[in-house]
Each structure stands twice: as structure tokens, then as C-alpha cells.
Amino acid sequence: MFNDCLIMAGGSGTRLWPASNSKKPKQFLPVARGKTETFFSLSLERALQVIEKDSGRVIIIAGKSHLPFVITACSALSFAEKKRLVLIPEPEAKNTAPAIACAVAYSRKAGDQNNRMLVLTSDHLIKPVKVFIKDVKIAADFAVQDRLVVFGITPSRPETGYGYVKAGKKLVKNVCAVDAFQEKPDQKTAKKFVASGQFFWNSGMFAFNVDFLASEFHRHASKVIRPFEQLHAPDEEAYTRTKGLRVLSNWAGLDKAYHQTTAVSFDYAVAEKCPRVVMIQAAFDWIDVGNWDEYARLLSNNSEVYIAGAGTGCFVDSDIPVALAGTDDLIVVIRSGKDGSHPAALIVKKGETQRVKEIVEQIKQAGRIEIL
User: Fold this and answer.
1) According to the model, what pLDDT value does residue 209 have?
2) For domain 4-290, is the CATH number 3.90.550.10?
3) CB 78 within 8 A of CB 45
4) Could you identify which of 103, 135, 185, 281 might form a hypothetical disulfide with 174, taking C-beta atoms 3.0 to 4.6 angstroms apart as the criterion?
5) What is the per-residue pLDDT across 30-47, written as a single tens digit (0 to 9) for each?
6) Residue 13 pLDDT > 80, yes or no?
7) Domain spans of the chain?
8) Are 163 and 184 in contact (CB under 8 A)?
């Protein structure tokens, strides 16, 4: 199917603060209480199933400080699977466009030309995997036609936390041209989008031919990709090995390239401007888990939670005992700092957890970056 699959594993995951923070972002959190699977490890499983059996490669781009989490997740893989992986440590976070540009440049320098690449996020839940693979095969067919493919999710509700894709002319079953990308709307606009039946949630996953996308970068966002294309192809000395994994830790000039590139999202830099975008209407189930309301549905309460009074519908995620009295419909998240991070607590009413981003912004403005 795909020669390369990029997993974007960067980001701080502040929407699930304080469980998710800069030291351990959302993608490395468990998908359920008592489970070892994380959002990232499930994404890795999917990636290994959509690359070519003999020559396919999984490229993982993550922040340098998060490599231990990536390595831990990959340590359970077989020797043959580990050989398929390349870990690229990001020297600094620069949003999704530089991450994709870096992977495209690496693919063109370290592999054959005309590679097909699938870009996956590392913090979503997707099932069933068999249905996902069927949609990915369709995406591969369009990628070889020099198309940028996006996976659109049929909205189940008006959602202000996601970007949207406006569907255009139908090409084949469940595939259509894209008329426009829309930024995250307000509630009124989101309701109009859903009622029209023309708008889909933007999953943030893409497929393309790397040579085609490189040309689109040069056409619309040359400042993003140019620093990476100036790098030489990495030789064997550029890699180090950790627990059987190849880490591109000594790629000469990578730090400088990240410093020179522009911090911008891929949607804004390229996707919104590209004239050859198609959308696959995803047949698989997709959950972003972009707030505590969503995450609470996946997790069960801690075992050491004490409730007096009604206590209707309260959810607690804490690493210390918690007691509640006479409270309803609260989400309580507490981190004591015993894991080395800064202690913090969040108490929010159910249905209001999108406002955590406002709290995070206030913390930034107060100069308390260390608790994020």
C-alpha cells in the first residue's frame, strides 16, 4: 500500500491537562484504566499494517524529551518490525507542516522517488482496523494520481473543537473533491455545517505521493520545506540504535533546519491551498478524545474515590485518594507530582471541558509554563 507511514507524535496535549502535559502528552496516556495500550501504541499497530510488506517504513517524529515513551512503546515489537522503524527526534515543536515537510524530505533522500506516504496522528482512536485498512487502500489509489487525500469523518454532533472539510463533487463511492477547509467554527456555524450534510470533520490524516507534495510545499509554503531539502541524505553514522530501534539522532543540520523553518499547521500551509485535494468519507469509527468529557467515557473511576451524598455522574482521575460530598456532574483530575511533574488539579463541570484550553491560556499568561 504505502512505502512510508509517518506518525506525528509531537504536541503537548494540553486539552487533557493535567494528566497530559509537556512531559507526558496525551498520545502516551493509556486508552483505558488498567490497560498498557496507549494512543500512540495503537497508532503504531495501524501503521505497521498499512506499509509495504517488504520495503515499507514507519517514520516517527516526536520531541526529543518524549523519545523514552516512544522507545518503550516500540520495545514490545518483534525484531523484524523494529527494522521497519525510523525515529526522528524533533529539536523543537514547530506544528504539523514542518513535521510533514521533514518526513517528505527524509523519504526522498533515504528512499526511492515517487514514494507514497500516509500521515497518521498519534492521539486518536480508530476502529475497526480492517475497515480503516480498506479506506487506506482507496487513499493509496488516489495518492498515485498526484492527489492530496484527506480522511473526512461524518459528524455526529455540532463540534467547535474540530476543523471541517466541505465536500464537493463526488468522484467515486465515498470519495469526493474538496471544496474548502474550514477552521474550528463557533457553535452556530457548527450547527449549520452539520445540518447541510456537506461538511465533515477533518481527521488530520493525509495521504500523497512525496514528490507531488514536495512540489506543493514549494508552491505554497517553500519556507517550510526548503531548510529540510538542503540537508544531505543521512549516512549510517547519522543513526544510533536503542533497544533495536534506529534513531536519527545525528542528522547533520537538522537542528538548524528546524530553527529556520516556519511554525505553521499543514492545513493552513498546504492543504487549504492545494487544488488537487480529495476526501475519503471514512467508514471507520474515529474518536479524537479531545477533551475530558470524551476521555472520561473511556476511563473508569479510580478505585480510591469516596462519595457522600448524591454524587451523580462524577468522574475522578487522580493518583491520590479523593473524596466528594454533595457534588454532581463533575470531572476531577489530580496529579500529586509524585511522578516528578508539577502537582496540579482540575475541577470542571461535565459538558464544559472544552474550556480547559482557556485555563491553559491563563496559565501561560501567568508565566507558569512549568505546570503545563
Assistant:
1) 97
2) yes
3) no
4) 281
5) 998 878 899 999 999 999
6) no
7) 4-290, 293-371
8) yes
